[in-house]
Amino acid sequence: MKSYRLIPMTLIGLFILGLDQFTKYLVVRFMEEGESIPILGKYLELTSHRNSGAAWGMFQDQMIFFYVVTVVVVAILVYVYIKEAKGNFLLQLAIVMLLAGSLGNFIDRILFQEVVDFIDVLIVFYDFPIFNVADSALTVGVILMLLEFFFTGKGDKDA
Asked: In 60, 79, 80, 155, which residue has its Cα 20 to 30 A from 124's Cα atom?
C-alpha cells in the first residue's frame, strides 16, 4: 500500500522546525549579537549573527520578496508532496526538510525582519557563511531531492 506517511513526516518536520526555533531562541536570549563561543576551536563556533538577506547575504532587506517567494515555494512543495511523493520516502523526506527549513527562516523574517544565524564553520581556510538549523534542513532537503531525481529515479515504492 502506497502512503503519504503524513504522521511520521509531520513529526519530522515539526521536530526540525522546533529545533530551529529553539536554538535561535537560545542564541537571541543568551548571546550578544557578534559574540562567539568556540566549540571546536576556530573550526566550529557558535556566533550570534543576523542576516536580513538570503545565503551569502544576497538580497539584503528585501523582506517582501522573501515573503512572496516563501509562500510560493511552500505551495509548490505541498503540491509536489501530494501529487508526486506518494509512496516515495526519499522525496517525502526531502520535501519535509525543505518545508521545515523554509518555514523556520520565514518565521524569523516575519517576527524580526531578519534571520538568526549562529553556526560558524571554518572549512580549512574558507570561513563558511554563518547559518542555522533551517539552512541545514534546506541544504539536506536539496541534496536528498537531487539524489532522488538523478540517482534513484522514482525512489522506493512503498518503503
From this structure: 60
